Amino acid sequence: MGRVTAPTPVIPTPPADLPGTLGALRAAGHQYRSVKQELRDNLLARMRSGEARFPGIVGYDDSVLPEVERALLAGHDMVLLGERGQGKTRLIRSLGALLDEWTPVIPGSVLNEHPMHPLTPASRAQVAEAGDDLPIGWLHRSMRYGEKLATPDTSVGDLIGDVDPIRIAQGRTLGDPETIHFGLVPRTNRGIFAVNELPDLAERIQVALLNVLEERDIQVRGYQLRLPLDLLLVASANPEDYTNRGRIITPLKDRFGAEIRTHYPVDLELELDLIRQEADLVAEVPAHVLEVLARFARAVRESPSVDPRSGVSARFAIAAAETVAGAALRRAGLLAASGTPNGRPEAAVARVGDAVSVTSTLRGKVEFESGEEGREIEILAHLLRTATAETFRARLAGLDLSGFTALVEDGAAIETGELVGAAELLRQVGTVPGLAKVLDRLGLGDAPTPEEAAAAVEFVLEGLHLTRRLGKDITDSGRTVYGDRG
After folding, report:
1. Residue 126 and residue 120: Cα distance in Å, rounded?
2. Contact, 350 vs 286, CB < 8 A?
3. Which domain of life is it from (predicted)?
4. Is 69 or 165 the better-scoring residue by pLDDT?
5. Environment class of residue 404 by beta-carbon count within 10 Å: exposed (0-12), middle (13-18) or buried (19+)?
6. Residue 468 pLDDT more than 70?
7. Do residues 197 and 237 lie in contact, with contact meaning Cβ atoms separated by under 8 Å?
8. Residues near 394 by Cβ (< 8 Å), separated by ≥ 6?
9. What is the pLDDT of residue 4?
10. Which has the minimum average pLDDT: 132-146, 274-288, 293-307, 411-425?
11. How many other CB atoms are found less than 10 A from the CB of residue 20?
């Protein structure tokens, strides 16, 4: 098997009509702006035009995003505080879209220096010598974002820079600034730099960021470099680390202009919107099944058996939806191998019974309280049943479902389960009074496919069981049998 290599990111090509020299840039009326001025101007332009400011960010319109906008307009560096899976990193990365699409740079400058605002002695000499004939390059906004996941082994050299022994060996003296190999922060000059999980940085490393945030210069070993760095610094942190364990040093906390708390989706509709946007589903998952999973994620998040300091990531609900879709695809594949009664291949449509698999596959995403050891699956299964019952009541309240309970009178039973095909399930129930209204309530339309109809029937059967109107047994072969409670 050949070696698998990561795809090389495609760097956009600058338009041909952009100025190619410093003189042409001046003649075009270009004005130098700092990164924070750039972000402020572009954010205001989007506000005035009504264009989406943070596309793809769900659930923060009335809470987090207004605070982020105020921080950007004020020119503040910011720290986002929130439990895992609240979209902090995604929000930070979306800030890059507020930068100018193209910005001029001095070619070859590791600090992305603006030709009208050179920083290093070499660049200043280059501009002075070439004047208006200085060739300029153009940097796309996608290349103006830098990010570092804070890990305990992160060094000052990684973030700020260090002396390059090779350059000293080439004959430069220790006092020459050209001997410095710049780290990630100065290399993101004229851009946005993000530090994820800032509390995980050792305190002595956090000290190195003090001057970056306040004086906007950097210090490398014995060098005092007065390089006025131009960047927006954004950090993310877990509030438990940030406030209780004191892992961020006080002077660094004081230098952030804005502290913004993130949160999980505040209501069910936002949770559903997030799942629909983010989940990569390999099969159809009906709306009522997605609602069960959204309610399930919220129930896990609010359970007293789960450690609230850790939180339950939004990725939990997303992974649950993808798992359920995978279970539906597996059923369709296995039924295709065994053949279907009508000869038509089974389409992959998820049912509420497929959700049972998530209690075991996703328990690793949840941190339980110490006293619940050994009961993890039991707790998740109970919460899933509760979420299913709540969805059943919300979706089908007020409907006459006596036609379904009549199916199991006089000792009759209905078998369903992971490997029961749609045709087999529908054959068992036949024509059921009230099914059309159920399909309408579940949003499956006037002409659902057999697989969608089977998903609706199974949901009703499970809901009637959870509301104590039907009995339920699991056979040794894994099939689910619904019958009379007596």
Report:
1. 10
2. yes
3. Bacteria
4. 69
5. buried
6. yes
7. yes
8. 291
9. 45
10. 411-425
11. 15
Neighbours of 10 (CB within 10 A): 7
Q: Which residue has the tokens 């982020």?
A: 68
Structural tokens at position 269: 């509709």
At residue 245, the pLDDT reads 47
Domains and their CATH numbers in the chain: 23-259 (3.40.50.300), 268-483 (no CATH)
Amino acid letter at 170? Q
- 392-396 contact pairs (CB < 8 A, 24+): 392/459, 392/460, 392/462, 392/463, 392/466, 392/467, 393/463, 393/467, 394/291, 395/288, 395/291, 395/441, 395/442, 396/438, 396/441, 396/442, 396/460, 396/463
Per-residue pLDDT at 243 exceeds 80? no
Q: Which residues of 282-296 are buried (b: 16+ CB within 10 A; e: fewer)?
A: ebbbbebbbbbbbbb
The encoded tokens of residue 450 equal 């057999």
Among 85, 58, 142, which residue's Cα sits nearest to residue 367?
Answer: 85
Name the residue type at position 360.
S
Band (pLDDT 50/70/90 cuts) for residue 241 is low
Q: What is the predicted pLDDT for the residue at 224?
A: 62
What mean pLDDT do residues 272-292 have? 95
Characterise 95 by phi-psi region: left (phi > 0), alpha (psi -120 to 50), beta (else).
alpha
Using CB atoms within 10 A of its CB, is residue 163 exposed (0-12), middle (13-18) or buried (19+)? middle
pLDDT score at 293: 97
Contact (Cβ atoms closer than 8 angstroms) between residue 392 and residue 339: no
191 phi-psi bin (left φ>0, alpha ψ -120 to 50, beta other):
beta
Average pLDDT over residues 185-211: 89
Tens of pLDDT, residue by residue over 13-50, are 889 999 999 999 999 999 999 999 999 999 999 999 99
